[in-house]
Write the structure tokens for this entry.
Amino acid sequence: MVLGWFTIRMVTYLWWLNVSVLAGFAIVITEAAIAFYKRIHAIPFGIYGATMVGKTTLNHQLRTRGEVPDIKKRTVGLHKGTRKTIKVEGETHTLKSADVGGESFYWKEWIADMKRRKVKYIIFMIDHRHLDSGANLDHQLAWKFLVDAVCANTWPNGKKKKEQDYPIAVGMWANKYDIWGKKYSYDGEIQNHPIFEPFKYGMQRLNDKGIPTFKYIVSAKSQPEMVYLGVTTMLKDY
Ligand SMILES: Nc1nc2c(ncn2[C@@H]2O[C@H](COP(=O)(O)OP(=O)(O)O)[C@@H](O)[C@H]2O)c(=O)[nH]1
Ligand SMILES: [Mg+2]
């Protein structure tokens, strides 16, 4: 009788132990699987913008973290996408981006890149050249090209876009803050900084199309934390 009672208790206890160990084990496995999935399924990012804004620098920054050496070479055409793993506040994200030239004859490569890599997040980079000279329309022209391409219902080959062919969000990143921050200092909210003024209409068009836009200020060359925070904010918020 006593033995029987003891056996039942033992069996129940072992059963519970088993269940909790298994449950704990399952959680560990699931977490590992999610981390692994995140690493393998890199989130496709597209980094575009006029020439010399810092696209190659940003690609470097995402890959290496730290001060990026001066980029002297101009990017020719479209490069292969490379994987970057970034870690912010303990969370790891893997993203993939390809370096593309910024001269207008490469702009069509941006669309090819979006289509081929199924770009989910776009970072459009600008700097302060339009503030230095009102006659410089580099960013405005590149931006119009990009907004037209993203909002279009068809790809350049005439094929109709599907719902998942549109990006999840477009970031407008004003780069080289270390150069222009003081010169064009602004008291109000960063969102309202005059550097973004000429791009409002295009942002509105994207919003009307259901694509949120996100304004951001960075120094891609020397401020890795700003870069990483910008990327995670885009991933988290959209
Ligand atoms: N001061 C400063 N210079 C930058 C920054 N980002 C890029 N640059 C410089 O701007 C120039 C153009 O950069 P690059 O990455 O080649 O631009 P891309 O043509 O868009 O690929 C290079 O001399 C970079 O060192 C930045 O945040 N601050
Ligand atoms: Mg480049």
Remarks:
- The helical segments are 2-40, 55-64, 107-117, 129-132, 138-151, 177-180, 200-208, 224-237.
- Residues 55-56, 75, 99 surround magnesium ion (ligand 2) (CB under 6 Å).
